[in-house]
Design a protein that fits this description.
With 153 residues, the chain is mostly beta strands. The chain is 6% helix and 41% strand. The protein contains 2 helices and 11 strands. The strands form 2 sheets. The chain has a 6-stranded antiparallel beta sheet. A 5-stranded antiparallel beta sheet has the order 7-6-9-4-11, with no helix packed on it. A hairpin with a 2-residue loop joins strand 6 and strand 7. It starts with 15 loop residues before the first helix and ends in a 12-residue tail after the last strand.
Length: 153
C-alpha cells in the first residue's frame, strides 16, 4: 500500500489532490434557481455557491416569446450553447438563428441579446469568465438605448 510521509504506515493511500483542491458535486435538486421575468437561471457555478474564481456557468431557460434583451458584460467573455429549442441571437447588430447544438462566443463589452421567438422554452448553457462579483457576473443593460432599442422593430 502506497503511503505519504505525513500518514502513519497503517493508513490507506489518501489522494491529497482531492483533499486540497476546491471541488464540489452539484445535484439538480440543489442547484440554486432564480426566477426572472423572461425565464429561469440555474446557477451551476458562481462564486457565492462554488467559490469559483474563473468560471460562471448558468442553465438558462428562456421562455417562449421572451428575451434576455440587449446587454453586455464589461469584463467577461461569454459562450452561449443551445441545449434545446431555438433562439434569435444578436451579436452587436448582426443576428443569427441558433438551434440545438449551436453556440456563440461573445467577448467583453460586446452588446448581445437572446430572443426566443418560438412558443417552446429554449434551454441554454451560458458560461462566463472570469467570475466577477459574488453573483458571478455583471451586466450592463442597453435595451433602451440607440441603436439597440430600434433593431427588432
Amino acid at each position: 500500500m502506497a503511503e505519504f510521509a505525513n500518514q502513519a504506515p497503517s493508513q490507506p493511500l489518501r489522494y491529497s489532490w482531492l483533499i486540497t483542491m476546491n471541488a464540489k458535486y452539484l445535484f439538480g435538486k440543489d442547484i440554486p434557481v432564480d426566477h426572472v421575468d423572461w425565464g429561469r437561471m440555474g446557477w451551476i457555478s458562481r462564486p457565492a455557491d462554488t467559490q469559483a474564481k474563473n468560471i460562471t456557468q448558468i442553465l438558462v431557460l428562456l421562455e417562449g416569446g421572451f428575451s434576455h434583451n440587449f446587454h453586455y458584460h464589461p469584463r467577461q467573455e461569454e459562450v452561449i450553447y443551445v441545449l434545446d429549442g431555438e433562439i434569435e441571437q444578436w451579436l452587436e447588430t448582426e443576428k443569427r438563428t441558433l438551434k440545438k447544438g449551436d453556440a456563440a462566443f461573445i467577448g467583453p463589452g460586446v452588446v448581445h441579446g437572446s430572443f426566443n421567438t418560438a412558443t417552446k422554452t429554449a434551454q441554454l448553457i451560458a458560461v462566463l469568465s472570469p467570475s466577477v462579483t459574488d453573483g458571478g457576473y455583471e451586466m450592463v443593460d442597453v435595451a433602451n438605448e440607440a441603436p439597440w432599442n430600434a433593431l427588432r422593430k
